[in-house]
Amino acid sequence: MLNSLLDTLRVVALPTKTNFRGVTVREVALFKGEHGWAEFSPFLEYDDQESAPWLACAIEAATTPAPPLLRKKIAVNGTIPAINDKKRLEEIVASYPGVTTFKIKVGENLAEDVARVAWIKSLNSKAKIRIDVNGSWSVDDALRNLYAMFEEVGTFEYVEQPCATVEELRELKNKIRIPLLIAGDEVLRKAKDPFTVDLQGAVDFLMLKVQPLGGIVRALKMAEHHKLPVIVSSALESAVGISYGLKLAAALPRLDFACGLATASLMRSNVADLPIVDGCIEIADCEPVLEGLDVSAERFEWWKNRIMRTSKLLS
């Protein structure tokens, strides 16, 4: 089966509009199976073990039908990178038409973080604000920084992964004296077995990313197992990967929050359009246009070899 998928393999390079957590060009591998195009795009620094769920997801997407979809469109949040150019931030906000929820990357510099969050809030005083720390704070850092941000902008809808471990998240929730809801991301997707992680008293929302969690079927089982409200988010994928994330969001029995699936707006080039209309993206199969986006022959072989190595880790 893998050989037939590899016969269709294309690897493309998609430049981003800004430096997004160190990424200025996103390389993604795409292949086509009976049920359409699929994406394999673990970040370049990930080893084969961490990449294995991403490949399992891609094979699932290409070779199996999607589960029943309960929605035709998904409300999305805007994702704001860690920059502080006010004009550029205004342009990014404007690239999310109709969106009323924004997730802002923070965690590198408190003064810049506060200024960025306050500026986004000033552009739309009624917007719901989320922040994403990517697990970079200690508990003491989180207490200090969250109090400072609360003074400036008030309550967040949630804070995504303020600290790295479940134990730290639980300690933070016990110590903090302002309203705080936590979304767990890395604590799940980087766990050896996400089903055995005890989130009690540490996490209020599950952040589900379809590739890192191994596909729609496994992500749905995870949501059922942990019994927490869910937000579906992207891993800075191409339109192909995001389209599959949209199908995960559409398949959830319950979905009450805007999802982080509008990151195509952060790309300068993409393989397909995912238009945002009134703050939502419609569910649709993705037929990519790949001309002019292919990587070099050397990079193609690198990705092909990565897929072949990683496939040996799948049971």
UniProtKB/TrEMBL annotation:
<dbReference type="InterPro" id="IPR013342">
    <property type="entry name" value="Mandelate_racemase_C"/>
</dbReference>
<dbReference type="Pfam" id="PF18374">
    <property type="entry name" value="Enolase_like_N"/>
</dbReference>
<feature type="domain" description="Mandelate racemase/muconate lactonizing enzyme C-terminal">
    <location>
        <begin position="85"/>
        <end position="179"/>
    </location>
</feature>
<dbReference type="InterPro" id="IPR036849">
    <property type="entry name" value="Enolase-like_C_sf"/>
</dbReference>
<dbReference type="Pfam" id="PF13378">
    <property type="entry name" value="MR_MLE_C"/>
</dbReference>
<keyword id="KW-0479">Metal-binding</keyword>
<dbReference type="GO" id="GO:0046872">
    <property type="term" value="F:metal ion binding"/>
</dbReference>
<protein>
    <submittedName>
        <fullName>Unannotated protein</fullName>
    </submittedName>
</protein>
<dbReference type="InterPro" id="IPR029065">
    <property type="entry name" value="Enolase_C-like"/>
</dbReference>
